[in-house]
Write a structure and sequence with these properties.
The structure is a single chain. The protein is α+β, with helices and mostly antiparallel strands. It contains 17 helices and twelve strands. The strands form four sheets. It has a five-stranded mixed beta sheet with strand order 1-2-10-7-3. A three-stranded antiparallel beta sheet has the order 4-12-11. The chain has a two-stranded antiparallel ribbon with strand order 5-6. A hairpin with a 2-residue loop joins strand 8 and strand 9. The longest helix is centred in the middle third of the chain and has 32 residues.
Length: about 400
């Protein structure tokens, strides 16, 4: 493997040296602040990557896909919406949008409400729960599984595959990298085989689900190819599950770390939507986004060469004092809030409306049914991915409201 490809792969899966320890990964924001102030654009020799920390610079990179390409090398094999450039990206996104409209998402609200209440019914008598295991994981898994027409018995298979697809690697050895690639390849193959079975079933007997809609979606008479549908289903599973799980968990984490916030939002239900947006800024599920420079370009006074990897640290940009007043303070009613928690530009998260809706409904119901939510005494373990901000478990205690 040549040096450029090796550098690109490591930039995606290895933590920056400043965040090598678990305690730093659990709360990386002081590190982001230090790097933003001292080295806002720097080259990391170990990872072979440029790191960019200021809002203005990150915004510039994400809005310029011609100069900063999404084609990078560690995604699911073959192109997905995440890794396509223009004009194919727009064409594919328009096709997918035909089956993924805001109305279709909003129509899910009653079902999301029902699922949330059913999940909380199972723990409310205990006075305690693991937010990740009991709500934040199963809710998006069930919603996406139902959207795709997946039988309920297979839902947790989805979660296992999803976890594998985003997992990073511990250390930068060839052996560790090879093991990670093998695990991802196995999960991808199993997912593709699973979805291929569903596709074949829907061709013969269409149902009211997203797979059936994708099979008939057309723009100018052109339908999606089978491999494109498969890759989209895998992308929706991985990106949708992980992002929403961490968004819900991170919101509850904030409310237990700062109890006054849960009281404030409970007293002002109209703050639920802005609280979700502030969570996306303050504790974003995705903290970094990778790109490849397509030409020599200068960012922050540094010359980035064609072909080099560039990591945009949205977790840092979202707390840039040049853009946000009181950036390290969580304001449930913050407006305006131009965060980049869902990315920016042509690759703005396609599933953002669904993730927002699920998080809003989950928070609203938890606040109405629970009071005095507190973190139970237990060590927290960060998700082992340098681009994801979340924890594996988040146990809380609470008092049921009558």
């Amino acid at each position: 493997m040549n040096a450029d490809k090796q550098a690109t792969r490591y930039a995606n899966i290895i933590f920056i040296k400043e965040l090598a320890r678990n305690d730093k990964q659990l709360f990386p924001f002081p590190i982001y602040r230090e790097l933003r102030e001292k080295t806002p654009v720097r080259f990391d020799e170990e990872r072979g990557s440029w790191d960019v920390f200021r809002y203005e610079d990150v915004h510039r990179i994400l809005k310029d896909p011609a100069t900063f390409s999404s084609r990078r090398g560690l995604e699911v094999r073959g192109e997905t919406l995440l890794t396509m450039d223009q004009p194919k990206h727009t064409h594919m996104r328009n096709l997918v949008n035909k089956a993924f409209t805001p109305k279709a998402i909003n129509d899910l609200a009653p079902r999301i409400t029902s699922i949330t209440n059913e999940l909380l019914d199972q723990v409310i008598k205990n006075g305690k729960m693991d937010v990740v295991h009991d709500l934040a994981t199963p809710l998006p898994v069930i919603v996406i599984a139902e959207l795709l027409g997946v039988p309920s018995k297979d839902r947790m298979l989805f979660k296992d595959w999803s976890d594998t697809m985003v997992k990073g690697v511990e250390g930068n050895s060839e052996e560790a990298f090879a093991q990670m690639v093998a695990e991802r390849d196995k999960a991808e193959k199993e997912l593709a085989e699973y979805f291929l079975t569903i596709l074949n079933e829907r061709r013969n007997k269409p149902e009211d689900d997203l797979v059936s809609a994708l099979l008939v979606a057309e723009i100018d008479g052109e339908k999606l190819q089978e491999q494109e549908i498969l890759r989209f289903c895998i992308l929706l599973l991985v990106a949708g599950n992980e992002t929403t799980t961490n968004l819900i968990t991170n919101a509850i984490r904030i409310m237990t770390e700062q109890p006054a916030i849960q009281d404030q939002v409970r007293q002002h239900p109209e703050f639920v939507k802005t609280t979700v947006e502030e969570t996306l800024r303050y504790y974003p599920p995705i903290v970094a986004i990778g790109r490849i420079a397509t030409q020599d370009v200068e960012i922050g006074g540094q010359l980035i060469r064609e072909g080099q990897q560039v990591v945009s640290w949205v977790g840092s940009a979202n707390r840039d004092p040049e853009k946000f007043e009181k950036p390290d303070t969580f304001l449930p009613d913050r407006k305006p809030n131009p965060h980049m928690g869902f990315g920016f530009g042509i690759h703005f998260c396609l599933g953002a409306p669904l993730a927002r809706l699920e998080a809003q409904i989950a928070l609203d119901i938890m606040l109405s049914r629970f009071s005095d939510m507190q973190l139970a005494k237990a060590p927290l373990t960060p998700i082992p991915s340098p681009f994801v901000f979340g924890v594996k478990t988040y146990p809380i205690t609470f008092t049921a409201r009558t």
